[in-house]
Amino acid sequence: MHTTEPIVTGASVLGIQCVDGVVLGCDTLASYGSLARFQRVRRIVQPGADWVLGGGGEYSDLQEVARLLETMVTREYCQEDGVVRAPRAVHRYLARVMYQRRSRLDPLFNSLVLAGRGRFLGVVDMYGTAFESHVVATGFGSLLALPLLRKAWRPDMRMEEGAACVEHCLRVLFYRDCRALSSVQLARVPAEGAIEVSEPYELGELQWHVAQTVA
């Protein structure tokens, strides 16, 4: 069935490239229209061993993207030739899928962020536009969080600092974006070692007294 209008949607996804890996973050809210209906939705998935995917937009379309990637990974495994797509190859595959669906007038209403080994960080939107960068943000985060990420980023930044920066940006989005939530999820993709996708947890140190200074 064609998705003609997003109904259950997720908000921003943020990513930052560090000297020892990549950090990805988003909240766990899936809004039903303007209602904060589903508050423990995981929008970061790990279909492959070397990369993770975070998605905003229509949640059912994100589930379809995850299914496509899981099918791709299963087919690779069944080939038994030892060939596995690198994160950059998966990123390009997603760009082709999104562009093909858009050209059929049956788009997947998502903005996707892929983080992988080799400090890879890339974005694909619903039109198939794809690019790589050291800091990325989708949704309202591209307006509110991206300037903060760019200001904080350093070439020698480590993942601990990157995670703290992403948390800070998610906190700002919770203050400013009515589709954001204080329950968040982070993924850490180190250059070496196991990928860690956190369980949903609450942001601390929320300071609502600053609302008095906002017009």
Automatic annotation (TrEMBL):
GO BP annotations, alphabetical order: proteolysis involved in protein catabolic process
Keyword Nucleus: yes
UniProt GO cellular component terms: cytoplasm; nucleus; proteasome core complex, beta-subunit complex
Source superkingdom: Eukaryota
Regions that span the bilayer: none
Pfam families linked to this entry: Proteasome
Keyword terms of this UniProt record: Cytoplasm, Nucleus, Proteasome
Locations listed in the record: Cytoplasm; Nucleus
Record function comment: Non-catalytic component of the proteasome.
SUPFAM superfamilies associated with the record: N-terminal nucleophile aminohydrolases (Ntn hydrolases)
Primary localisation category: cytoplasm
Protein's name in the database: Proteasome subunit beta
